[in-house]
Design a protein that fits this description.
With about 290 residues, the protein is of the alpha+beta class. It has 2 domains: about 1-175, 2-Layer Sandwich (BirA Bifunctional Protein, domain 2), CATH 3.30.930; about 195-280, no CATH class. The protein has helices at about 10-20, 50-60, 60-70, 95-110, 150-165, 180-190, 195-210, 215-225, 260-265, 270-280, and strands at about 1-10, 30-35, 80-85, 120-125, 130-135, 230-235, 240-250, 255-260. A 5-stranded antiparallel beta sheet has the order 1-3-5-4-2, sandwiched between helices. The protein has a 3-stranded antiparallel beta sheet with strand order 6-7-8. Helix 4 (about 95-110) packs antiparallel against helix 5 (about 150-165). The longest helix has 16 residues, at about 150-165. The radius of gyration is 21 Å and the shape is globular. The model is unreliable at about 170-175 and about 280-288 (pLDDT under 50).
């Protein structure tokens, strides 16, 4: 069970993504499984009169009150954490995922041991994972103590694995990030893009691979789709890996933001792409 923590400044675009169709229409039946207060959290996936905007306003209420006092919204107030079970784990029910959500929230400090906590929700739109979305402002206007929150979330997930008999994740084991961060979602909205760069690049990778007959054809198909491709080569000048970037996606320093292929999609590393191409039928779906 692997938690992936990120931070940002916009709760509404994050919720819109979680309740949306997903990058390849893979989101199924988005709905709440837990919240700071299920009676006070309108669920757009279950109630026809609920909306993403209304839920975002409820989550952001304490931050809005604080902003009225200070003249600006608290920075980096949005906390996002996806929690994924291993594919071989048994399918957990909504109540089990609710228990996971509540334990992670307590472990990371979103809900202090004393006094009321932050507002948060847990959204499930797939079989093997949930997303926690929170605004890290307490009712008092103070910020919660969340030092080393990612490590604390992982420690709690390890405890759940041991108690529930789930697959134990090794200390050095890593997983690719399949979903955009809050900051990436906000950047896409600012640029007027229909989807974040991470999602756009994932889609271009799969489309290019479906058209290619060999590695050069794969990289050429990516370039034809407007993707900036950077190939890493070894001492023998043989390709050893690659990263991708979206035109116009720059970081704070003005440099193009590149994503390593394996971080975009663990199934699209160079060795796996080469293996796929070597076993692909030469007469089906191949570019001339």
């Amino acid at each position: 069970m692997i938690p992936d923590v990120s931070r940002g400044n916009g709760i509404r675009p994050l919720l819109a993504y979680l309740y949306g169709p997903g990058r390849r229409e893979e989101h199924e039946d988005p709905h709440l499984v837990a919240a700071w207060d299920l009676h006070g959290a309108p669920d757009p996936g279950r109630h026809p009169r609920a909306s993403v905007g209304r839920l975002a306003d409820r989550l952001d209420q304490h931050a809005q009150l604080r902003a009225a006092e200070l003249g600006a919204m608290p920075p980096n107030r949005v906390w996002h954490c996806s929690v994924r079970a291993a594919p071989e784990d048994p399918i957990l029910g909504d109540e089990q995922w609710a228990q996971v959500a509540r334990r992670v929230v307590r472990a990371t400090g979103l809900e202090p041991e004393e006094g009321p906590g932050c507002r948060w929700v847990a959204v499930r739109h797939a079989v093997h994972h949930i997303h926690l979305a929170a605004v890290t402002v307490l009712p008092s206007g103070a910020r919660p103590g969340m030092h080393r929150d990612a490590m604390r979330a992982q420690a709690e997930c390890r405890a759940i694995e041991a108690e529930w008999g789930l697959r134990r994740v090794g200390i050095g084991e890593r997983t690719s990030t399949s979903y955009p961060t809050s900051a990436e979602i906000i950047k896409a909205e600012r640029h007027g893009w229909s989807e974040p760069s991470r999602v756009w690049l994932q889609r271009q990778m799969h489309l290019a691979l479906s058209e290619a007959a060999d590695p050069n054809g794969y990289f050429a198909a990516l370039a034809e789709r407007g993707v900036i491709v950077r190939v890493r080569r070894g001492e023998d000048n043989v390709a050893a890996g690659y990263s991708l970037a979206r035109p116009g996606d720059v970081g704070a320093g003005g440099q193009i933001v590149h994503f390593a292929a394996g971080r975009l999609d663990s199934a699209m590393t160079l060795p796996r792409v080469l293996h796929h191409l070597s076993t692909k039928k030469s007469a089906e779906g191949i570019r001339s």
